[in-house]
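Run: sequence + phosphoenolpyruvate -> complex structure.
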Amino acid sequence: EQQKLKRIRLNKAVTLDGTAIELHANIEVPEDVVKAKAAGATGIGLYRTEFLFMNRREMPDEEEQFIAYRKVAEAMKGLPVTIRTLDLGADKQMNPDTARSCTNPALGLRAIRLCLADPPIFHAQLRALLRASHYGNIKILVPMLSTLSELRQTKLMLERAKLSLRKQQIPFDEDIKLGGMIEVPAAALTAEAFAQQLDFLSIGTNDLIQYSLAIDRTDDSVSHLYNPLHPAVLQLVEMTIRAGEKLGKPVSVCGEMAGDPRLTKLLLGLGLRQFSMHSAQLLAVKRRILQTDVPRLGVLARKILNSGDSDKIEPLLDKLNLQ
Ligand code: PEP
Ligand code: MG
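>> structure
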């Protein structure tokens, strides 16, 4: 089985009808690039930078971050490397022993909220990312956006970082692309407004499911209710894909849903053309793509999307997967 999958490593991810699909890898540390390339990823769709900050006392400074980001950019040799700005807080604490306790960490000061509340940390990361962009094809991805105001503040911070580098005559990619994670239902519902102001969108289904279904993704007692196939989740995903299509901005899914081969045809049927996942899932998803005729998916995918009942979706999905 593994041998069979390996044979399609170098195949282009194209469906039977000739639709080209982008298959990217999620990484947590620069060393993960080796596995991403071995799996045939054509880019890094999500580099979770918080792992550089976790389980240690001191924050990594700009230089340490620059070295890590440049390493990934260089290793990917011009292929896209989407680096997410710090997504600390909630399930990803820097130092669990000293983490500030709050009643609802997932709804608290995390991700972009934390960065905007601590400009020196954000400034150092943005400078490190910009400096590394001179050595490859880096894109910046902002987590947990829920309002356009956060995006405006982020853009001001990015301009400030660019200005400081220009003053010092340090080179960076002047044309660097800025994308946003759509992982809060409010952002999915207003995805068009975000797509207007961004170069690309990336759907974080892990958090989108958590927030739309009110299920703590870290709480085992409710994990049976955590359902990627809830019609509300599918509708939020589809709305975001449509918003990107309408405004001509690429949309990817980088949450766990993207790496589940059982959901590949459904996501293709909803219009998704870019997936980012753990490297270990990549070939299984590619195999599904190679077996799919996109025009044939439309009717059933619509039916699934418009079904108000989660329990009716499972059998429809089985049918879709046989197409
Ligand atoms: C997500 O929320 O789907 C996502 C990709 O980010 P993380 O799992 O790191 O929160
Ligand atoms: Mg997330």
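>> summary
The radius of gyration is 19 Å. The pocket of phosphoenolpyruvate (ligand 1) is lined by residues 46, 48, 87, 183, 204-207, 254-255 (CB under 6 Å).
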